[in-house]
Amino acid sequence: MSEASENRPVTGLSTNRLEAFSDGVFAVAITLLVLNLQVPQIASASELVPRLSALWPKLLSYALSFVIVGIYWVAHHNTFHYIQQSDRNLLWLNILLLMCIVFLPFPTALLGQYPEQRVSVIIYAGTLVLTGLVLQALWWYATSGCRLVDRTIDPRLVQRATRRNLTAPLLYLLAIGISLFSIPASFVLFMLVPLYYILPGRIDRHWAQRPSARIDEARISPDGDAGPSDEEASHLRKSSYEER
Fold this sequence. Notes:
The chain is an all-alpha fold. The protein is built from 12 helices and no strands.
């Protein structure tokens, strides 16, 4: 390979293989979570219920992480709804995100095995903080200067997605601080955070708008400046029609 070709920036790559690979990794990660659950060995029937009751921390951490991986898959899917192409940097940011996702079964098992240990809570929350920050870094890189997204994208949508991406890392950082005083309270916060992402948000309402309404939003930026031209709005109208 020539030096010129090595130095040439990689742009305009399709996201198809990236999304397919990511879906596969998410599927593997969410499946690995169940490996921490094992059928208890008992000597008599009377031991079964107490042994099953002792599994509640593992069951809780499994269910919590299963939902969280699902939330990140939905976020990844939504993110790439707007990203139209990829480049080398985006590929590696995505790989870093997948590394965080695949690592999650380990802190999940740690939290299930030692739920009363503060270190377990910190490692679990820290993993989720890093995952959320990497997702936001990916979104920022793609949307900064409309690098990999359509330049007619609504700036308010970018800001809303940014706030939504950063909410979880901030709350998990709060959970780390709370764990210094009360580990059960940090567990409560762990369970409340997913509710924020499961319930429909403003971005969901943006998708539900009529294409013409989305075009009107795209015409005005947050500071009141004019948005895309008539030609760009026509392109957005066509894209919105194709999404229906």
